[in-house]
Amino acid sequence: MRHLKIMAQAGNSGCVAVQSLHRAHAPVTWRPSDYDLQRADGSSRIVLSGSENGTRIKELFQRSPLRIMFPRTVAGTVEEAVLVNTAGGIAGGDRLECDVTALSNASIAVTSQAAERVYRALDAPARIATRLKVFKAAKLAWLPQETILFNWARLSRMTEIDISDGAELMAIELLVLGRAAHGEEITGGYIADSWRVKKDGRLIWADSFRATDQTFPHLHRKALLSDCKAFGTLVYFGSHLDARLEFLRDIAPSRACYCSMTSMSGLIIARFAAKTSFELRLALRGFLQQLGGELGGHPFRVPKMWSC
């Protein structure tokens, strides 16, 4: 009744009544969310097939902010595909999907234009889905540059691979915690980085890395990442697995980073870790140069974009 009395006293002015009503109720708290802001929903898909004149593009689809570029070669054939994120980075709530299919006799290396950056999020993780399919007698190298997470970034990434008997595949994913040039330390955020590998439709390997607000303060422990801020995983599927595993173990000590590898379920799994992204990239360049020679070169070699 009090606000009615105030309205009667105020005459024709309704401002006092509105102010009184506002005071009579508890203030409404509003917390911003990533979903309240404009967010990216990008998608790209490429299907490649082999021909007498080399690898050819059979299907291509792209939705902003993702783009697929093909650097020119002397022979005019497709040797390398470059993914470009025109948004200039990834924010919380973004959704990006990339599908690459290599049909019989196709040979392609897929990389990214630059290191990807995942910015600080409010509450929602950015979601990245990568799906790779490699058919018999096809070769695919998935070699994107590193993904750099800013402090309080939130990322959920899934890499799904489907391979067929007689195919050959190498896939790498790299993560960097913080911007070294800024002296940034990751004190909170969220990471869920998962792999699923299937052979002829049957799951043969699954792996997940997960870190939360409660985890980051402990990652410096020796049992976890120690003093390493950059780390990654390499997956290889192909022939002569035992011989190539021994070759990788022979060259591993010459790399200026921590690395180890094993074989399981017809795959070679290698892990890499270094104090900085520069050290990790330098080590991987040398690693790929030697491994590429062992595997016969294209597409298993250092991508040209890694030198730009």
Question: Can you put this structure into words, describing what you see?
Answer:
By secondary structure, the protein is of the alpha/beta class. Helix content is 16%, strand content 41%. The protein is built from four helices and 17 strands. The protein has helices at 2-10, 15-24, 241-251, 277-295, and strands at residues 41-51, 54-63, 66-69, 80-85, 95-102, 107-112, 116-118, 126-134, 139-142, 147-149, 154-163, 168-177, 190-199, 202-211, 230-237, 258-264, 267-274. The strands form two sheets. Strands 3, 4, 6, 7, 9, 10, 12, 15, 16 and 17 form a ten-stranded mixed beta sheet that branches. A seven-stranded mixed beta sheet has the order 2-1-5-8-11-13-14, with no helix packed on it. Strand 16 and strand 17 (267-274) form a beta hairpin. Helix 1 runs antiparallel to helix 2 and helix 3 (241-251) crosses helix 4 (277-295). 34% of the residues are buried.
SSE layout:
Elements: H1 2-10, H2 15-24, E1 41-51, E2 54-63, E3 66-69, E4 80-85, E5 95-102, E6 107-112, E7 116-118, E8 126-134, E9 139-142, E10 147-149, E11 154-163, E12 168-177, E13 190-199, E14 202-211, E15 230-237, H3 241-251, E16 258-264, E17 267-274, H4 277-295
Parallel strand pairs: 1-5, 4-6, 5-8, 6-9, 7-10, 8-11, 9-12, 10-12, 11-13
Antiparallel strand pairs: 1-2, 3-4, 12-15, 13-14, 15-17, 16-17
